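Q: Got a minute? One more chain.
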Amino acid sequence: MIDRINRFMRQVPTWPLYVAAVIPPAWFFYAGVTGQLGVDPVKAMEHKIGLLGLQILIASLCVTPLRRYAGLNLLKFRRALGLIGFFYIFLHLLVWVVLDVQIFSQIIADIYKRPYITIGMGAFVLMIPLAATSYNAAIRKLGRNWRKLHKLVYPALLLGGVHFVMLRKGWQIEPLLYLAAVVALLLLRVQVRQKITRWMSRESV
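A: Always. Here it is, folded:
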């Protein structure tokens, strides 16, 4: 069954993901303009797009464990998921800056004075070099350093999860579950890497 799915996935192009990625934010914008997002459509749009970005980035982190433990090979889609996740987080920030706060001095003040915004901005800054080097020429130019650079996704996702928890005040279950999922996936990758290191050390003896 898994082999059939993998064969099918090898034939599926990645470009439909990029096309489909435009639909949710376009719908949120339309829903906000037409009064379908409640009394504060800007805040609703901001939160929905940000949460979608976090979900997509968590999905990108699931690609490697799915391949190692379930045999499901979705590696060809990982770059697309990462870029789409970054796109949503960028839109989340853009809505906050342009439609929500609007005043530049207030934006700077919020970044410095509100810890959850500081942490969220830190996560976004960490993702910028990842998005900027997610094309074939950059991968070839950076060589092995590309993999090291793209490990920034781990602290970026962790900060994103913390940002969500702090945004939803009062220790709500939903953001804690997202943070727990990020932590679990990161711990899983650490354990896998340690096992590989131990296996390589035995082989070299």
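A: The chain has a mean pLDDT of 87.
Q: Perfect, thanks.
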